[in-house]
Amino acid sequence: xxxxxxxxxxxxxxxxxxxxxxxxxxxxxxxxxxxxxxxxxxxxxxxxxxxxxxxxxxxxxxxxxxxxxxxxxxxxxxxxxxxxxxxxxxxxxxxxxxxxxxxxxxxxxxxxxxxxxxxxxxxxxxxxxxxxxxxxxxxxxxxxxxxxxxxxxxxxxxxxxxxxxxxxxxxxxxxxxxxxxxxxxxxxxxxxxxxxxxxxxxxxxxxxxxxxxxxxxxxxxxxxxxxxxxxxxxxxxxxxxxxxxxxxxxxxxxxxxxxxxxxxxxxxxxxxxxxxxxxxxxxxxxxxxxxxxxxxxxxxxxxxxxxxxxxxxxxxxxxxxxxxxxxxxxxxxxxxxxxxxxxxxxxxxxxxxxxxxxxxxxxxxxxxxxxxxxxxxxxxxxxxxxxxxxxxxxxxxxxxxxxxxxxxxxxxxxxxxxxxxxxxxxxxxxxxxxxxxxxxxxxxxxxxxxxxxxxxxxx
Length: 459
Fold this sequence. Notes:
alpha/beta
């Protein structure tokens, strides 16, 4: 290991405008979500992303030394580096002082070898990255730790922030509420009424968030949040704020780390607001730029057929023309029921940067049955993971994958957050779904002989 330590050199990150030819920069403590030079309040124009001083990072350590440092910290107890996110602090958000980090020990989630499931398909190296095995049960914790930590830093520096605000279909609100509760910062959530599962709804309520249930969909909630956050004392927590995406970038870094820094071939990501696939792609691109990996995996974006703006644009070759938002239809994958994704153009740019990447969709029947089939092989999947698994099955049927390709499916949330989806599937009550793997209780008398006859009949 080199004698120099990352702390010996001041690393920097900043917001930078993504509009070609602009390049305006802002401090991470600035309350800004769009470029003030070219973005105005259009939610896609002048979007910002976090940039790092890669030259300084390269000067500090060789690729092998960075890997050694990250391994030494991983899931250990030295604050805050035991977190799967903050163990990569220099690559994520070096601008936050350690005493302002708000961490619930996020990251470090299981990379599940789906051996039996994969072999049933003729795939020998299939893995599910269980991002839902986290404090609030979804991958949103990875980004929220960075955003709320930066808010705490900003308050520490004197910014008059009254509350942090988000629109959500469930998981974002749960994560924001938990991290704000841990930090002692008020949280405000706007949810679409009757479109969030009860386990998801109770999370922000239990953590004390000021929760509004609105008679609209996610896109309607997001529009109202944009208006609210014109008031700079209300800080925006949705993935339009690219601080969130920096935390989510660690998914890809952690996957490679869990394989002892070996490259992977394919990564399949459920896509709604388009932030996560962009973040994951940027994580791989940063690792390649830093020399930690030598080749990039191919990314596959997976959308529900009823909410598929990225699929539609992909099929048209990502045309260079104004995007017309679509009205997302009701889908079982409610967290990605988004017709007007904020990070659409970021996702397209990332997919174009990674050769061989593609986008596919799944119907309601396909996603529900794919989730159930995975459950039969030891998982317990949310409907959004079902979309990614259905796309895996669909593309495998087209012979896209070689038997020994290393394939990672991103599981975004814990299946326990969606009991109605599971219950109604096995009760054959989901619309547009023919449940091929339904399993119901066998009601018999409390009699040993009767039970034995049923066992003999069924085993």
